[in-house]
């Protein structure tokens, strides 16, 4: 490994670097530039210093109130869907068959929601939930529940959450199933000999062995739900009122609705920072999970 | 300059990015010239110089945002430059704290 080091290989990275520069680095620099200025269009900019950040972090201003409210909503949404999808995904994975033709059938059925594009999922649920023609909305209203996601905040939230659970529980289940499949039979045989209960097998063998995939699932689902835009935008449009306006929806409203590039840039930078920190924490935990016990000296 | 008008460059942000790219350049050169092994610090995770730089930069951003949110950016001094003088924002204190925390991170993490 340390005999021949060929630095020429770095030139092969150059095309990727150029693509990333134009698709990520230059736009990000521009966003930083925008966040320090105000504009009225026509490429005319006026220096505003950290003014937008001040406003953004002050709950008493319009911008700050909207940002912090949508952030709180978004965190609550992420917490709720994680609390539902992770246990549900584990249960689904545990109850899936281990061998035979039904495995393939289960996998295909589970994978179906994952293959549908976000905006189509939104449209499906938007129609599904309508009280006049949608199967769900019509049925619920006929059962005596006054369900209307357009006018009732709780109904809107319930619809968005159930939609996300429908769309993404499969992902958690598939990941958990992969984790379960990797457990050697010897563990189960040992448990059987010891006379372990079903619960003991779950807590002592299956859950620890699913540790890594569960972390990946939680990371993926948190990031995805924290950045969610399309589905609630299609179903509720952020309403009723602002009740399902998540951070990305608020961001698009400010950037493209009001064309306040400075405010939107400041918001997106703080949003980006939160995501970066969470990503880093998850990444660090994931790459170090299970590595602690063996001595790390000289491994690097 | 017409072509990059949409990027809305300003002197302060340009200085910021030049400093940032210089830092990254120096760190890259250091990594090539003086390779180092990972070590485990107070966070109980193996880190390289690059990791510690990343942590420092992220912490710097957080410290500045928290400062703006909770302390504000009032002027703490006026430098006798020009007619009206140049006001020094208290945000520079956050920068100072960030530098100190970066030193601490590079030594202990």
The parts of chain A where pLDDT drops under 50 for at least 5 residues are 293-300
Q: Please state how the strands of the largest beta sheet of chain B are arranged side by side.
A: 1-2
Main sheet specs of chain B: 2 strands, antiparallel
Query: Strand order within the widest sheet of chain A?
Result: 1-2
Short structural description:
Chain A has helices spanning 9-35, 51-56, 62-95, 101-115, 118-128, 135-142, 153-181, 185-194, 198-209, 211-226, 230-235, 247-257, 261-288, and strands at 37-39, 45-47. With 300 residues, chain A is an all-alpha fold.
Topology, element by element:
The complex is a heterodimer of chains A (300) and B (109).
Chain A: H1 9-35, E1 37-39, E2 45-47, H2 51-56, H3 62-95, H4 101-115, H5 118-128, H6 135-142, H7 153-181, H8 185-194, H9 198-209, H10 211-226, H11 230-235, H12 247-257, H13 261-288
Antiparallel strand pairs in A: 1-2
Chain B: H1 11-33, E1 39-40, E2 46-47, H2 49-70, E3 75-79, E4 86-89, H3 91-108
